[in-house]
Amino acid sequence: MRFTSLVIELIRARPRLVVWIVVLLQAALWLFVALVFYRSPPGNLATLLAFGREYQVGTDLGPPLAFWLADIAYRAAGGHMFGVYVLAELCSIATFITLYHLARAVVGTQQAVLAVLLSMTVLAFSSPTLEFGPLVLARPLWALLLLHSWQLIGQRRGNAWFAWSIAAGLLLLTTSAAVGLLLLLVVFALATAGGRQTLRALDPLYALLVVAVLALPYMIWVIRADVLVLPALPQLTELNARGLNTAWLLGSLVLGAAAVLGLAVLNSNWFAAKGEEAPIIYRPPVGPLARNFVYFFALAPGLAAVVISGLFGLDRVIGGAGVALVMSGLAVIVAAGDLIAMRRQRVLRTVWAAAVAAPAAAVVATTLLLPWTGTGEVTTAMPARAISDFFDDSFVRRTNKPLRAVAGETQLASLIALHSGRPHLLIDAEPQRTPWISQAKFAETGGVVVWRASDTAGTPPPDIAKRFPGIVPEVPRAFEWLVNGRQGLLRIGWAIVRPKGT
What we know:
mainly alpha, 5-stranded mixed beta sheet, 6% strand, globular
């Protein structure tokens, strides 16, 4: 007797509902983790917000759009990180919904659901979820660009040019890898008859004009800042190390897609029970152009990013693994054939749910258990609000003026810059990175200098003492982690640089 689960019936009858349910549940899971277990922003998100607060056209961190949007979300939430976390999850939702529409145009509505489910396992492992930034914002924009490109090349929808140009312009304002991604689109268009026919109209010229207008301010900054310089090519003695780095980057992408491969193996004939009549997920035949489109953009972005990143010795795939692997789930579905038998349904559901929830579970386990080992710190366990409130209040009490700037150790200084007063961040070790405030301006407005205290006297590190001669260290301030465990308290050394005239 054939058994068909409720999930399979929903995929057949209400595919869009299934997509929305699983995407929203994943977003809710991560927001729950952030609200309960994050006392400070993950990764470099605090520094990103400090840069976004300045609304620069461009910085050494890349194009400005992600920084601007992060600051807008932070302010809209009343100075709470929840707004930025919601923005990150909205990007995740937009990525999967856009991918569903693209997959539906290629493999039909039912198998499009399977493509989204597989892609969720890939992005869960390979791409940051709550650490909003260029890597997170680029995913929905790249998915939109692929959708509109298929509408132009595969469906001959000329009215998609304007939407294509907007997505392309915003992608250029988001990541430095956008130029390479656009070149891949051009290569595919020129290599196919449908693409060449699409490019023969005048609409592409108008689209390029819109893209140029959107990206012009950042392009002007790039030219003026003279940052159009590629890293040096490796020497012969470095080729072995660069080759190993390339292999490691390629392995990280393969590992990110491991859950997809595992689900495909579990659903193969190898594990099928004898006499089992598995339910079938149908699709209309996929044409050669659609098949080539999916395979090309499932493989080319990742391979190109790995080669470039490995050649120049980068420690991560340029553009982010989320962009490189966003089409991998759809590629597996296209390769699976017109009829996909859903074998061992309970096992597949369990493995899929575990793959999607595993990164969130790992965050919770790390937060609760790592402090008891005493081997490392959990950066999200820092009490960001308590830190920023203490140093802001201390500066106001000592000087009777609001805190205008903060310097010292970048990670700690960025947390203080999150305070409602939003003081400027000065990266004193590399002042060219923060052109909105100089060392002289810092001495004029005054501010707080912070560092990790290594003794009870709060002696500043030699490099900080050299850059801020004459500072008088205060008694270090100790803060508790979310979970103290066996690790010591977070001790922060600090000093006040008084404003001139006080």
